[in-house]
Structure formats: structure tokens, C-alpha cells
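Issue 218. Parser rejects a valid record. Input:
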Amino acid sequence: MALSDTLLSLGIGLIMFGIGLNISFDSFVRIITKPKAILTGLTCQIILLPAIAFGLASLWPMPPAYKAGLVLIAACPGGTASNLVTHMSKGRVALSVSLTAFNSFIILLTIPVIVNLATSFFLEESYEIEISFLAMAKNIVLTVLLPTAIGMVVHIYHPEFTKKLKKPLRYILPAILLIIFAFIFFSNDSSTAISKSSEIVLPALALNVLTILLGYAVAGRLGIRQDGRYTIAIEMGLQNSALAVYIAHTMVKNYDMALVAVVYSSFTFFTTWGLAAILKRQSKEQK
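Output the parser choked on:
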């Protein structure tokens, strides 16, 4: 494994450890015994999210590769960013982590189908997309599940140490994630990304905002409680950009498709966090 990949994995693992310090085992038990929230979130991410991207890409006037790239980013739900924003927004962190874990395996089946539909429709080409189950399982265990579990155990057996860590981690965890985003951005020819981003920003922002609002609305219609509603909304707004970049570069070999994920990841952390805060505040005012 390259040094850069190792450093990225360590950074993500540290973020998930910090998040685990704030989760109890009871939160995961509640998700299992009352699965409506996680089933709603998974359905929104796997079905609604790509459907919105397809519709938006079909209507928005932009190059075909950007259209396919917009669908690609929607086909890669979840990721560390959504877990961190949920934690910072005081949402249901266990729900967010569970959605990330389940999605990491579901997308092994859905990404090949969705990406082939997008490239066939917009680029008139098809590709063989194969993601290793073992590699994905190893990645999700080492960077998400294990660090989160260690954080939870530390929280249980060393509460005073956890209390001391919580305040500095409020600043350290977002800083680590921003470094990861910067690495993805600058490792993908940032000068080209900046020059071409004007064509990508608006449709990417539209996808981000639409999916957040629709995820929030669907969860509300199905009777999900408020903290679960904006947790699902956050999950809809933040995708696994690193995976999208990898697929576009390595499997599809289309830089313009990868560029959509790079641009998307450069601002959606902030827009999702801000919009989630607005939704949370409005619900409190309505009460």
C-alpha cells in the first residue's frame, strides 16, 4: 500500500475513534430493535439518491462526462464526512456509522449497475466495474468499525480520559478531515479542477441541496424522529468522494468524471453541515 493511502486510512481511523468516544452500545441496540430509521436511510441512499442524480444530469446542460460523474458520486453513498458532520450536529451517530457500514457492502452490487447505466446513457460506453468484496470488507473494518469500537470501549472504561479528549477533538477531527479533502483535491491536478469547476459547482450544489431536503422530507413522512431525520439528510448530502475518484480514474479511466467528485468534496462538507443546522433549528422553533 502506498504511503499516502496509509496516511489517509490512519486519518480516517482517528476520526472514527474520536466519534466512537461519543457513542454508547445502547445506541446500536436501538437501531437493531427499531430498524425503521436505518431501512429508510438505506432506501433513500441506494434508490432515491441515484434517481435524483440521473434526473438532474439529464436536465442540466453540461458535458456528458460531467453528467456521468454526477451519477457516479451519487452511487457512492456514505463515508467518514457524514459520520463527522452527524457527530458535530449532535445527530444519531450510531445510525450514521451503521449506514456507512451497510452501504459499504450494498454498493458492491449497486455501483456496477448504476455506473454502467450512467456511462451507457451519457457516454454511450459500458465498463466492467468490479470492486473486491474482501478489500472493501477489510477497509470498512479497519477504518470505520474497529476504530469506532475502540473509542466506545475507551469511553466505557476510561470516562475521565474521554472527557478530557472531547474538547480538543472538536477541533482536531474536522481539521483531519479537511486535510484529507485537500489531499484528494491537490492529488488530482488542482489547477485543472479549478479551471473547470465553474461548470460543475452549480449542478453539484443542486444535487447536494436537493438530496438533503428530500431525505429529510421522506424521513419525516415515515415518522422518523427529528435527530434521525437530519441524520438521514446528512447521509444523503455527503458521499464517498474518494471511492468515486478511484472508480473514475482506475476503472472507467475518465478524468472528467473524477473531477466531479473532487469538486463535490471540496464544498459539500460545509453546505451539508450548514443546511443540517438550519433544519435542526427550524424544527426546534416549530416545537
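Fixed in the parser; the record now loads. The domain at 3-280 is CATH 1.20.1530.20 (Na+/H+ antiporter like fold).
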